[in-house]
């Protein structure tokens, strides 16, 4: 069934903070390689849902199953990363005083120390992977530049490249388009579309033009539960969704 065929299977999950129900009987499924957008007003529970998936927050009730077999409610953040769940927070975090190439190299060797990684000779497999990642995130011509000198959008792409270096099965991306120019926003949608297939990608986003460009399944959260689910065209026509977005 769905619980075993899905990469991530969330069912009947609830989480209460000081008596306030942030997540309420939430069900959410991600299939392998799927690109999936999560939208919803402030306070809808999007961040809490990501925190539950990554083991930052433990739910009070419900099922969170990984790859049909691992109970994620007993896995912490380090454990979820080891299972293949990568998380990109909203703010870019790159090593500003290292080159773009070295940022990717450090990510490829996340299990080793910085000094050991930078002193070791690049293996040909690593060099090939770095070339692939640089092409994917469109930073080939910035390879030898310090990451600190990149634009905001380029830093976001570099960090996505760093997460991909660890070959996650699921990449969670929080509002990647925030603070980007229109062109960067569209390039980011292209990038996430290119990544999907090889990796499942869940994107939390507010920018509807960006969600439209992702052209993927959309889940609308409201008051900690799913209000609508399907294509953007479908969810945009659901009366409850229109009410929530128009504040009625
Ligand atoms: P979103 O990311 O969709 O804006 P959140 O998941 O951040 O929503 O928050 C959902 C609700 O849960 C909000 O009302 C928020 O104030 C509350 N909440 C989230 N985390 C905590 C916490 N650690 N303690 C108390 N309340 C929290």
Supply database-style keywords:
binds adenosine-5'-diphosphate, alpha/beta, 6-stranded mixed beta sheet, Rossmann fold, 248 residues, 4-stranded antiparallel beta sheet, 38% helix
Structure description:
This protein is an alpha/beta fold and 248 residues long. It has a single domain, classed as P-loop containing nucleotide triphosphate hydrolases (Rossmann fold, 3-Layer(aba) Sandwich), CATH 3.40.50. The strands form 2 sheets. It has a 6-stranded mixed sheet, sandwiched between helices. Strands 2-1-4-5 form a 4-stranded antiparallel sheet. The radius of gyration is 19 Å and the shape is globular. The model has no long low-confidence stretch (mean pLDDT 95). Adenosine-5'-diphosphate binds next to strand 2 and helix 2. Keywords: ATP-binding, Nucleotide-binding, Transport. It comes from Roseospira navarrensis. GO terms for molecular function: ATP binding; ATP hydrolysis activity.
List strands and helices in order, with pairings.
Layout: H1 2-5, E1 8-17, E2 20-30, E3 35-39, H2 46-53, E4 61-66, E5 70-71, H3 77-83, E6 85-88, H4 100-108, H5 114-119, H6 124-136, H7 152-165, E7 170-174, H8 182-195, E8 200-204, H9 208-214, E9 217-222, E10 225-230, H10 232-236, H11 239-246
Parallel strand pairs: 3-8, 3-9, 6-7, 7-8
Antiparallel strand pairs: 1-2, 1-4, 4-5, 9-10
Helix pairs in contact: 4-6, 4-7, 6-7, 8-9
């Amino acid at each position: 069934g769905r619980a075993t065929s899905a990469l991530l299977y969330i069912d009947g999950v609830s989480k209460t903070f000081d008596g306030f129900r942030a997540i309420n009987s939430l069900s959410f499924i991600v299939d392998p390689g799927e690109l999936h957008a999560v939208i919803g007003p402030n306070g809808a529970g999007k961040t809490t849902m990501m925190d539950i998936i990554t083991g930052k927050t433990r739910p009070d009730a419900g099922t969170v199953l990984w790859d049909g077999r691992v109970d994620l409610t007993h896995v912490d953040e380090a454990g979820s990363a080891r299972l293949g769940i990568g998380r990109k927070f909203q703010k870019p975090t790159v090593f500003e005083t290292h080159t773009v190439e070295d940022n990717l190299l450090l990510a490829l060797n996340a299990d080793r120390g910085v000094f050991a990684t930078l002193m070791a000779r690049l293996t040909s497999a690593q060099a090939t992977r770095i070339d692939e990642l640089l092409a994917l995130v469109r930073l080939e011509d910035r390879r030898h530049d310090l990451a600190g000198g990149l634009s905001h959008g380029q830093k976001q792409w570099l960090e996505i490249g760093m997460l991909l270096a660890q070959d996650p099965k699921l990449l969670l991306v929080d509002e990647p388009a925030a603070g980007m120019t229109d062109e960067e926003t569209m390039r980011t949608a292209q990038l996430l579309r290119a990544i999907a297939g090889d990796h499942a990608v869940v994107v939390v986003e507010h920018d509807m033009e960006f969600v439209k460009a992702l052209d993927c399944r959309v889940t609308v959260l409201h008051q900690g539960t799913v209000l609508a689910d399907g294509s953007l065209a479908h969810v945009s026509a659901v009366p409850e969704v229109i009410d929530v977005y128009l504040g009625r």
